[in-house]
Amino acid sequence: MFVQDQIIQPFYTEDGNLPLLLAFARQMIGLLDPQFTLTSRQVAQTNEEEPYDFERQTIRYGIPTQGFETVHYKAYEPKYGEQAVDEVSVRAYGLADEQVFQISCVRYWNTPRFLKLSIAGPPSVAETILAQFMQNFGNPAMQETDLPNALLFLTRTLRQQAWATARQWAEDILKHRPQEGQALFAMGVIHAAQKEYPQAESYLMRVLALSPEHDDACYNLGVLYQETHEPQKAIEFLRRSLALKPENSPAYYQLGRALEQAGHLEQAIQAYHDAVRTSPNPGGHWGYSGMDFTQQAEQALARLKKKGT
């Protein structure tokens, strides 16, 4: 008995694309069981629902002892009022002992959707079905209509600092759109977060080559050069970021750090004061989710004052 799971990710299709899976199952099941009952007659249906939690619809087609069972399961994220899981599966029931055929299309929250085939049967038959699965679905191409959703999920995963998932999205976007600035920028941020500074620098420089006024790329390069102990480069790019986006408190704070690192203490003090002056959360209110270095800037000023600067 040959047993294997095969996954294709990413797989581009709409949520709940049941006809696609059912058509493939109908095409392949005769190889596994030549006597399999192929009928579209519905023999059972169940619906389960918990408001704002999940929905599950299960339908059986065929005869009571043999056919296809389809399941469409949707789970929700109450905090955002959005679907966190969308899973559609087609499973053959009534097969000979130990034989398995199930194909599923799954999306978990912000991760790329994937297609999964689970097969168990005689080796030659199972391998034929797996080969057909890869031939039908194995080279998914991102269409122009897929790009907005891919960029949306990329942005979400970056904000969540889910680096591995964000990298999946960015790499797949770049495979189809090599000059997509948002994906290039994301790769720079991801590499920097993992302290892979040469790669991060390369991606961020590519962003600036495409969009010289990309203030976030300048900001991230400034922070990167602090980490690599190149304060003059950090100062250059942070000032460039502030020229493009004035009154940016985090950029003032990072500029203060770079100036202090370079020994320009009076200028560093002014930058820290500017960071406090332009604070996005001056009251330090609980629950603010943006980038805020006000407290760190105030601590830096107190530290430098104590040193008598």
Key words describing this protein structure:
elongated; Serine Threonine Protein Phosphatase 5, Tetratricopeptide repeat; 7 strands; 2 domains; alpha+beta; about 300 residues; about 20% strand; 11 helices; about 50% helix; 7-stranded antiparallel beta sheet
Question: What would your notes on this structure say?
Answer:
The protein has eleven helices and seven strands. With 309 residues, it is α+β, with helices and mostly antiparallel strands. The protein folds into two domains: 2-137; 144-306, Serine Threonine Protein Phosphatase 5, Tetratricopeptide repeat, CATH 1.25.40.10. Strand 5 (82-93) and strand 6 (100-108) form a beta hairpin. Helix 7 packs parallel to helix 9. The chain is elongated, with a radius of gyration of 27 Å. It starts with a strand and ends with a helix.
**Sheet with most strands: strand arrangement:** 1-7-6-5-4-3-2
By CATH's scheme, which homologous superfamily of the largest domain applies?
Answer: Tetratricopeptide repeat domain
In terms of quaternary structure, the protein is: single chain
The low-pLDDT segments are none
- The helix tally amounts to 11
How would the blueprint of this fold be written?
Layout: E1 2-8, H1 18-32, E2 42-50, E3 54-63, E4 66-77, E5 82-93, E6 100-108, E7 114-121, H2 123-137, H3 147-159, H4 163-176, H5 181-193, H6 197-210, H7 215-227, H8 231-244, H9 249-261, H10 265-277, H11 294-306
Antiparallel strand pairs: 1-7, 2-3, 3-4, 4-5, 5-6, 6-7
Write a brief structural summary.
With 309 residues, this protein is α+β, with helices and mostly antiparallel strands. Helix content is 49%, strand content 22%.
